[in-house]
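During the no-cost extension, the postdoctoral fellow (Dr. R.K.) reprocessed legacy sequence entries with the updated structure-token encoder. One reprocessed record is reproduced below for audit purposes.
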Amino acid sequence: MTATHCLPVIEDVTWVGVDDPTAAGRARRVATGLADRLGFPENRIAEVGIVVTELATNLDRHAEQGTLVIRSVRGTTQAAVEVVAVDRGPGIADVASAFEDGRSTAGTLGVGLGAVRRLSNAMTAFSEPGRGTIVTARFHATKTAAAELADDDAAGLTRPITSEEVCGDAYAVMRANGRMRLMMCDGSGHGPLAASASREAVRVFCERPADEPPERVVTAIHAALRGSRGGAVAVADLSPGEGRVRFAGLGNIAAAVVAGGQKKGMISVPGIAGFQARTIRAFDHALPAGAAVVLHSDGLTEKWQPDQWNALFGSSPLVIAAAVLRDAGVRNDDAGVLVGKPRP
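Re-encoded structure tokens follow.
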């Protein structure tokens, strides 16, 4: 069977560090420019600008190491602007109250964080006092829900090394027949050539039959990356109905199943896709109900544990990805993380 749902596609990713008051203007220009390119009407572009300015202003005034990720999320016929605000600030003791309309923090626009909930199509917030806050917001051209972009069972983030504008890590998600398939590739090195290798891995992954075993998908990617920079690659096939995830990895993509507060690693074989590989094998692992599967590149340390956060894995995949990247992405390297969390 041919894959028909290797969506959504993430493009136009911009990381805006919020380290002074002028960052709010930079973030607003990035977000409204992206909304304009996606064909949003003027009133919706203005609403995107209001929310992004409010988020950036709060990061500047109340947070530490605040960052906004602004990107497009594209389906077959629809597109959205997605914003992720991440910080290491003091956190919010009462998240629900902070996002009520009319509640504003001192010195902000006066519209308060309630504007995020009121003006966005979808919003999620996660905060831990003393550790920081993560807010995600998605905007369509209208407030009408867009069904083909409504999937919230998998999400990822990539961040380039400080010296580069493009990231050498990439990921993709495929859904078919009640199953979810995740792919992460870490192109060797950094910059455009590493990114080109990862994009080729995404292309091959999305073109393979949805019922092909993960080890054969990794083998196909290995063959396709010959002549490129190559890289590390992994594919996880999640079958929640069977309570099983089948995993195949080549190189140092880290992978784990997180359930019940426990993290159980999955095994990759040594090698470099496109250059050298031993026999590529797949291994089956238990996938309990409510579990999350996390794949990430070596731009993140593998030492993180679920219990270092308070109930993080009860949140959305995008929030989980943002928190893991924030707290485990301590190396000066390209970093990518992908989280799949099948619905019960």
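The chain has two domains: 9-149, 154-340. Confidence is low (pLDDT under 50) at residues 104-110. The remaining legacy entries will be reprocessed before the final report is submitted.
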